[in-house]
Amino acid sequence: MAQYDIIAATGCPTGIAHTFMAKEALEKAAAERGLTIKVETHGQVGIENELTRGEIASARAVVVAADKDVQAERFAGKPMVSVGVSKALSVEEAGKLIDRALAAKGDDSAVVAAADDDDLEEKESIGHQIYKHLMNGVSHMLVFVVAGGVLTAISFLWGITSYDSTASDYNSFAAMLKIIGGIAMNLMVPVLSAYIAESIGKRPALVPGFVAGMIAIQGLPVNAETGLIDAGGSGVGFGFLGGIVGGFLSGYTIVLLEKVFSKIPESLNGLKAIFLYPLCSTAIVGLVMLGISGPMAAINQGMMDFLQGLSSSGPVVLGLAIGCMCAFDMGGPVNKAAYTTGTLLLGTALEAGVGTETYNFGTNFMAAVSAACIVPPLITTFAVIVGKKYFSQEDHDAGIVNLILGCTHITEGAIPFMTKNIIPVMPIMMIGSSIASILTIFFNVHDPAPHGGFLVLPVVENGPLWVLAILIGTVVGGVLFTAFKKYDYDKNAKKDAEQPVLETAGTATAAVKAAPAAQAPQTTDFVKPEQVFVGESFASRDELLTFVSKKAVEQGIAQDADELMSAFIAREDMGTTGMTDNFAIPHAKSTTVTNAAVMAIKTSDIAGWETLDQKPVEVAIALLIPDTEAGTTHLKLLSKVAEALMDDEFRSAVKGTDDAATIAKLINDRLNA
Q: Which parts of the sequence belong to the PTS EIIC type-2 domain (predicted)?
């Protein structure tokens, strides 16, 4: 059975992006600390990499980063930190969570220090618990909305009234799609209610949760003739707000009943689960929900009137509100609030039918929300193409991928760009999204599908204008983002001109100067001609490092090529070793290295190796250090090579020759200086 220092569980409402971004950040943060970790993900496809009882029992600490129920009760008694998933999206923040979880086990002073952190112990925050329960319901509901909404939208391809057998554009297949889509959409409120309840009261809460959701749809039936409560009458539903209220009511009713029935003998536990809980909870919740149906219907109508009133204030006001919400946290709670509101208004619109005022408002609102969600990742794509030199290779690659994410309505791809510079990137994204939303409303665009991005363009009314609105928002935001990155690049270039080496190299130089002379290694003829490779061709940084690792084993410098490669990559993950003027200083400290060595590789341009001046790497001077010499030989060699790369004559001499012996002598002269 595998044992891990840290175990973790991640989950976001949609289970698409945040869940796996947090997993990656936690894994990298653990690796930086030399810790083993296993992360269980609660994504849209279900639980993956599931933790076993043995792994939970043997772990030193637990990190829960989730906005949905991840069965955290499994970790009872373990040192644990529980936060929202947005608090674990960067390696730095994930590292803090790991440190806090470990500190909770035994270091009292660390626990006290951590207690001053504003983000500490969110697991005790009532607000976070409520949000987590709500998002558990939203997570399960969204798939019904997407499936139902898209199927309904597809049915419109045969005509707006193609589902109506009395209409001239009737099509039986379109009618069946409309029926299936309508059933899925009608399930969204009961599912929302049931899984809010399940998050609170676990499985027993599902029954009253579903019933509460159905009541929220139907309202209190009243006979039109007698005005009295009548099972055969009709009522006024109170929508998703009623589903939310019903979900929390159902969950906490089960919690209350568990206390009430706690005195019943354990031998009757089966009776409680199959009879007492469903019967009592359904009766209590049902009566309360029917009792509040009138006030809830009024509140629901009031909210709709408010949104429509906001719309009557003009496209600018409504579009600005939608755009700012969607781009504020890009998939977080504020974004989800706007998107969920849009999907629920869309559900009401589809139920009301094409041509009604409710339909026009709901589909226009949904189009504005979709536009606002599509724009942020497209802004990053625009910026990395137009201002390529201002971005790292990693950011450039991520920006290109965001073209696909943006076009398919996945906003989260822009998060890594925002986390690096929240100000001004967040306001820039909000400006771009708001412009797209405002223009979408102004252009009278109607989107009957809740998700899919440009994939659902065929069913969008005024689709070309919708694309135009999105493009305008993208270009404006992209220009602003590129301008900021240019400013940031120029500022950093000025610093690099004054000290154009990595911070680690500067630290190494200072450390060597402070170290006793006796600890400095003997470096005479340190680099041998057979350790210099000229004319080799590599497609990537990793291919070059693999080559170095294998050659080191062949020459007796190291014992295990894979272990050496892992050491190189671990160092690169901490920060690139790409320097300026086409040079790089990859270095590895590992127990597999038998004796310190320097190897030089001169090659054609290597794409994808991030450097300080964005130029491709042509010369790599690799340092291979035994783990026991990490504080002496490593620092000496690193500082010497870093100082050499500051010398224009040295760089020009190395780049100007293809003779291995000459390159070895040039490097040896610097190491002996």
A: 130-494
Q: What residues are annotated to the active site?
A: 12
Residue 570 vs residue 427, higher pLDDT? 427
Residue 79, preceding peptide bond in cis (omega within 30° of 0)? no
- The strand pair at 617-626 and 587-590 is best described as parallel
Most distant CA atoms of the chain, gap in Å: 105
- Rg over alpha carbons for the chain, rounded to the nearest Å, is 31
CA gap 570, 577 in Å, rounded: 11
Residue with tokens 């009024």: 298
* H/E run at residue 405: helix 393-407
Is residue 326 within 8 A of residue 335, CB to CB? The reply is: yes
Q: Is the pTM here over 0.85, yes or no?
A: no
> For residue 7, with 0-12 CB atoms within 10 Å meaning exposed, 13-18 middle and 19 or more buried, which class applies?
buried
Domains in the chain, ordered, with CATH?
Answer: 6-107 (3.40.50.2300), 128-305 (no CATH), 315-485 (no CATH), 529-672 (3.40.930.10)
Angle at 15 between CA 200 and CA 5, to 5 degrees: 80
pLDDT digit string, tens, across residues 361-412: 999 999 999 999 999 999 999 999 999 888 877 788 878 988 987 887 778 7
Q: Which among 195, 218, 205, 362 is positioned nearest to 284, based on CA atoms?
A: 205
What value does the mean pLDDT of the chain take? 83
Three-state SS at 524: coil
Return d(Cα 115, Cα 117) in angstroms, integer: 5
- In whole angstroms, give the CA distance from residue 89 to residue 456: 30
